[in-house]
Specification:
The structure is a single chain. This protein has two helices and twelve strands, in the order E-E-E-E-E-E-E-E-E-H-E-H-E-E. It has a five-stranded mixed beta sheet. The protein has a five-stranded antiparallel beta sheet with strand order 3-4-2-7-8, with no helix packed on it. A hairpin with a 7-residue loop joins strand 11 and strand 12. The protein is globular.
């Protein structure tokens, strides 16, 4: 079983805050960082998932895997894990830090939809130490596995073509979708 897509996004984290939020934020009762409280690793909110980073200010890498069904658990070791659900009406998740939205988005192949999310993180101790002396880059890393709550994407994943995405990658490789 392979993911439908794999996307890698780099984002600047500041004040320990990071968020995955529906790009269509008009319907959200609160936009990030409203209500964010550093401490809990993962907090589910309407249309967003708040994450607490181990480093005050740093660049992190988020790898998003989109699956048609619940994926197998990733082998560890992982410093932190969390599970959540996120409603995404736009089909696009935007990564936010306390300073605002990131420059890259995560495309989900079906919208509107509610997604299960399994979040894994590594490099937390190293990032916490390195961020005391500078701005580490890529030390703390996240993997987020998404799959639809309903269990199967409508139309067998046909929403992918609606987004204007083109697959890259070879046989046996995870597909990376690009615009």
């Amino acid at each position: 079983m392979e993911p439908l897509s794999v996307q890698r996004v780099r984002v600047l984290v500041d004040y320990y805050g990071l968020c995955l939020q529906d790009a269509d934020d008009a319907w959200l009762p609160a936009m990030f960082p409203e209500g964010f409280a550093a401490g809990d690793f993962g907090t589910e909110r309407p249309g967003r998932i708040d994450l607490t980073s181990a480093g005050h200010t740093q660049h992190v890498v988020v790898t998003a895997e989109v699956w048609e069904h619940e994926p197998p658990l990733l082998g560890g070791p992982w410093d932190k894990t969390a599970t959540a659900r996120i409603e995404c009406r736009s089909g696009t998740l935007r990564l936010w830090s306390m300073g605002g939205p990131g420059l890259e988005d995560i495309a989900l192949p079906s919208a509107p939809a509610t997604w299960n999310a399994r979040i894994f993180c590594t490099g937390r101790q190293e990032a916490a130490a390195a961020s005391r002396d500078g701005v580490p880059d890529g030390v703390e890393q996240y993997v987020v596995q998404f799959w639809p709550v309903e269990g199967v994407l409508a139309g067998g994943g046909g929403g992918v073509s609606r987004l204007g995405l083109t697959p890259l990658g070879g046989c046996g490789q995870p597909v990376i979708w690009t615009r």
